[in-house]
Automatic annotation (TrEMBL):
The lineage of its organism: Bacteria, Pseudomonadati, Bacteroidota, Cytophagia, Cytophagales. It catalyses: shikimate + ATP = 3-phosphoshikimate + ADP + H(+). The gene is aroK. It comes from the Bacteria. It is an enzyme of class 2 (transferase). This is Shikimate kinase. One of its GO terms (molecular function) is ATP binding. Mg(2+) binds at residue 14. Its EC number is 2.7.1.71.
Amino acid sequence: MKIYLIGMPGSGKSTLGKPLASELGIPFVDQDKEIEDREGKTVKEIFASLGEDHFRQTEAQVLREWAGSEKSFVMATGGGSPCFYNGIEIIRQSGLSIFIDVSVAELLKRVGANKDRPLLHANDLKEKEERLAGLYEKRLPIYQQAHVILHHPTLKSLLEVIQ
Ligand code: S3P
């Protein structure tokens, strides 16, 4: 069984993925961590020294390898993973995809102060909100191709059931 959690940075993919994996008795995989281990650099460092294209290629490679494996897992994908190199197709065809849909206002509350996400780099909160909103709008049609869509309150109740 392969389960992919997809959605914007800060949507709670790891928060849901960890207890879900443990409940199902299968490994939890953090796609960003897989990329970092492979490159020996943090995501932030990869963006800064090798560029986004390189990051996206490695991201796609990691996704294809896990998708093509015989393994069962719950994967918290990187926010952009479904949106590059046919990611959503690879995800949909190899397992169950779950989109965690969280409003831009809520995302901003969660990632507002975080400086580790290169795509959300901004001088102030207003600019960060604009970046988030732009990304969300562009990605929504892709995320919505997931098999299941969870909204914020549903996610909360699901977490209560799992934990
Ligand atoms: C990205 C999201 C990040 C990470 C990278 C790019 C994106 O992962 O892969 O900074 O394009 O949305 P999270 O969604 O886990 O923050």
